[in-house]
Each structure stands twice: as C-alpha cells, then as structure tokens.
Amino acid sequence: MARLVKLTEKGPYKLEVNGETYYICQCGLSNKKPFCDGSHKRTRDEEDGKLYIYDENSRVEIKL
C-alpha cells in the first residue's frame, strides 16, 4: 500500500562517529539513503506550509 510521508527538514543531519563525519538524509530525496547525496538542494525554495511531491526531474505542489 502506498503512503505519503511528509518530511520537513531541508538539509542533512551531521553525525560524527570515531572521528568520521557522516551526513544523514532528512529530506527523503537521497538515492544513497540513509546517507545524504545533496538532493536536498532541490528543496531550498520550497514555501513553508505547502506540500510537494518530487520525481527524478520535477517537483509538483499538492493542493489540499
């Protein structure tokens, strides 16, 4: 069953373990989950309070 998950973070979570730095995806768009691949850059101009769906090449605003 499909489900819609709303992610509100627009950047990765920085995690340091044993002197190594990792960036964990919080936007849900990374192709390397759980790690960040920079895909969050696509969310920079999202307007607060609006809902969007992303595919590989575009973003669509969902009207509620």
From TrEMBL:
Q: Which GO terms describe its cellular component?
A: cytoplasm
The terms under GO molecular function for this entry are: 2 iron, 2 sulfur cluster binding; metal ion binding
Q: Which Pfam families match?
A: zf-CDGSH
Q: Where is the Iron-binding zinc finger CDGSH type domain?
A: 10-46
Question: What is the superkingdom listed in this entry's lineage?
Answer: Bacteria
**Gene3D superfamilies according to UniProt:** CDGSH iron-sulfur domain, mitoNEET-type
> InterPro entries recorded for this chain?
FeS-contain_CDGSH-typ, MitoNEET_CISD
Q: Which UniProt keywords apply?
A: 2Fe-2S, Iron, Iron-sulfur, Metal-binding
Q: What is the recorded name of this protein?
A: Zn-finger domain of CDGSH type-containing protein
Q: Which organism is it from?
A: Thermocrinis minervae
